[in-house]
Amino acid sequence: MIDWQSRAHEIAAAVRGGKVSATEVxxxxxxxxxxxxxxxxxxxAVTSERARARAAAIDQARDEGKPLGPLAGxxxxxxxxxxxxxxxxxxxxKINRDHAVATADATLIQRLEAADAILTGALxxxxxxxxxxxxxxxxxxxxNPHDPGCMSGGSSGGSGTAVASGMVPLSLGSDTNGSIRVxxxxxxxxxxKPTFGRLSRHGSFLFVAxxxxxxPLARSVTDLALSFDAMQGPDPADGWCxxxxxxxxxxRLEAGIDGLRIAIAGDYFASGGEPEAHEAxxxxxxxxxxxxxxxxxxxxxxxxxxxxxTAVEGANLHxxxxxxRAADFDPAVRDRFFxxxxxxxxxxVQAHRFRAWYRARVAEVFRDVDVILAPxxxxxxxxxxxxxxxxxxxxxxxxxxxxxxxxxxxAIGLPVVATPWxxxxxxxxxxxxxxxxxxxxxxxxxxxxxxxxxEQIGIADSKAV
Length: 465
Known about the structure:
With 465 residues, the protein is of the alpha/beta class. The chain has helices spanning 8-16, 22-40, 48-63, 107-114, 157-164, 181-187, 221-231, 275-288, 299-317, 319-325, 331-342, 345-365, 398-401, 407-410, 444-462, and strands at residues 43-46, 75-79, 118-123, 143-144, 147-151, 170-175, 190-193, 213-218, 262-265, 293-294, 371-375, 388-391, 394-397, 416-420, 434-439. The protein has 15 helices and 15 strands. Helix 2 packs antiparallel against helix 3.
């Protein structure tokens, strides 16, 4: 039976096999959106008419004996910085409401629909993607389905909320400094930040052009792999997209992890978070029999470099908007952009120089290991509106520090799968938290294989939680 908790691969198999129609699957999804979205605020637009037409076309194709794609009948939704034909590309802002509607879909939407998935709408997000909380002053916060009084994480907050609540089984987000991995961790989902340049960003409203990644969030590793394979491939319309042929990861998903060299990220990643962040990594390491620890050299400076590049390049993108309509920005976003405009050019140059050095040093680490485990977020979801949090006895701003462990990985473009830990309990308010599974560039297959094994462990462990 297909219901709102079904996973994407289960839905696609049922539609292809004639056990359920795409129209019925969509009906369940739209009903769930109608029921859950008013309280959780994941969607800023629902494209129901378009979705129904697409579902009817898929059903007709099946009735005519035509082969259906790998995502047949799977409802999905996208962060509202993706172009959706007929909608303005909001990027979480008030200002972009005044833009003309998009005339074509983003490349990744086109590719998912070519695989017979069904777009159901656009999702809430932090303004211009400069956010880790999932809160938006213009459209309201996207709420955490595990506790609607808590943050969903950002900036792809709506993408996390929509999947974790069962409104859709698959969503797309973007990740500059952690904006897929943070909501995946706080909402208890799997999220993939692919290698930089591996998926096309054409038709998306960028934040920082040389750091931004696009990727999926889902309730299973199989769903990540299935959607990732559908979106892979070169795109001449995106000059940053690697012009390399697709290398499917789904066929390698069940290859297992025997022989893989797995380590725990030490030093910077071994402290700074609350106990649950490190418990999650330790639990997964024990389950895998991993005892080795490695150091990502100068990770703290890697995070600092990401901060500088994000602040300066993000602010420069919005310079004219800040001049013309500063009052229409969220003050918390606007003030960080203003600060970015005032940073010396020398800082940006030095940040890029360090980034190149740091990337090379981390590449050396991956000569000796295949996959590294690290915390995804320093704690479970804070309360909505919470400004400060205590980490290791130190008071820190929430908005800036939920990306404590994701930012050092972002600027060097490594593929990462955020994987939920099933060991949470009453001590943590029954809120989820995740672990990063990090691999070398273009080795999403390895990260996904390890995440798949952790998923299997989590399914078994969750029965005892």
